[in-house]
Amino acid sequence: MAGLEPIAATEAIAFDFLAQGGKYARPFITLAVYDALTGGGATAPDGAARVAGFSDAVKRTAMSIETFHKASLVHDDIEDDDGFRYGQETLHRKYGIPTALNVGDYLIGMGYRLVSREAKDLGSDTVADILDGLARAHTRLSEGQGAELVWRDARDKRLKPLDALAIYALKTAPAFEAALYCGARLAGSLDDAEILRQFARHVGVAFQILNDLNDWHEDSHNKLAAGTDSVGGRPTVLWALALEGLATSHQEELLGLVHDDPRPVTERLEQIRRLYQQAGVFEKAEALVDKYQQRAAALADSITSPELQRLLHYLIESVLELPSGPDASLAKPAICIERTGSEKEYPR
């Protein structure tokens, strides 16, 4: 901070964080949907020229979704006190909580401004609809995050899979829904808006389950640690599936691992992993991902635009990629939960 001019510091940190890492899946989705519904061509041999022809207003709308996403990560890292993001020290650890909060707020303001100033090119009705969609996604995300925080800070750590999945539907799905909606609204084609909303819900929930699975794999590009969500007492579907599948005595053992347990974190993590394996949690979670993938694929098949239909199938394959490597579960992604004999009616 000492080397930054005070007035420019917030912008400099925000821009640096925007460029740091991540897959930029959300702005990609917006641009890809817009392309698919305006004739396609971005994947053709001259696709670069096609994308270069997108107006700045379209590009800025897509970028706005990334600024909201990155803002939520800054705030989420503060709330969970995570140490690393994209393989680097989190903003609140590096600059302090007040500065990190301010940067997150700045990114939110930037996101709305990227859209609000484009009324001349997009039209006031389009801008109003997009801003309303972004605001709706923003508030739903906050509701989901709030539910997670209330549960995390409660003494009673019992959680049902339905409850965890309901939180996911609020916390993760809205960003995908906003990305899809913005692309369709920019293209002036909302015939399949309801299908896109349902598609986003299934993809978002499956994505969050995959995030839970990936939390058990150390990586070199994000949080640099395994199992942090479970030992931190956060509500995950893995935790809920474990409580559902374990005998009473082992449920109590699991619950005791996040309540003032004096043992080292690594020791508790290994015990949680053992209980998860005993309950078949990783296999059941992968089966849930498969279920939501199938539901998303069925919705994609009902889309009227061939270009958009192909795009949605591509998103299923690229966004919902199961973890792999020596620590990955041995379960096959194609196994459906019905075949485990423990079918539940999860949120549709």
The residue fraction in helices comes out at: 55-70%
Q: In sequence order, what are the helices and strands, one letter per element?
A: HHHHEEHHHHHHHHHHHHH
Task: Estimate the strand proportion.
Answer: under 5%
**What is the molecular shape?**
globular
Described by strand count, sense and barrel closure, the largest sheet is: 2 strands, antiparallel
Average pLDDT taken over every residue? 86
SSE-based structural type? mainly alpha
End-to-end separation in angstroms reads 47 Å
What's the total count of β strands? 2
Q: Point out poorly predicted stretches.
A: 325-348
How many helices? The count is 17
Rg, nearest Å = 21 Å
Order of strands in the sheet with most strands: 1-2
Strand and helix layout:
Elements (H helix, E strand, L loop, with lengths): L5 H15 L4 H12 L10 H6 L3 H25 L3 E2 L2 E2 L1 H5 L1 H20 L2 H4 L1 H29 L8 H11 L1 H15 L5 H22 L13 H4 L5 H9 L2 H8 L9 H14 L2 H21 L4 H14 L29
Antiparallel strand pairs: 1-2
Helix pairs in contact: 1-6, 2-4, 2-10, 2-17, 4-6, 4-8, 4-10, 8-9, 8-10, 9-13, 10-11, 11-16, 13-16, 16-17
In brief:
The chain contains 17 helices and two strands.
Describe this structure in words.
The chain has helices at 6-20, 25-36, 47-52, 56-80, 91-95, 97-116, 119-122, 124-152, 161-171, 173-187, 193-214, 228-231, 237-245, 248-255, 265-278, 281-301, 306-319; strands at residues 84-85, 88-89. The protein has a two-stranded antiparallel ribbon with strand order 1-2. The longest helix has 29 residues, at 124-152. A hairpin with a 2-residue loop joins strand 1 (84-85) and strand 2. It contains 17 helices and two strands. The protein is 67% helix and 1% strand.
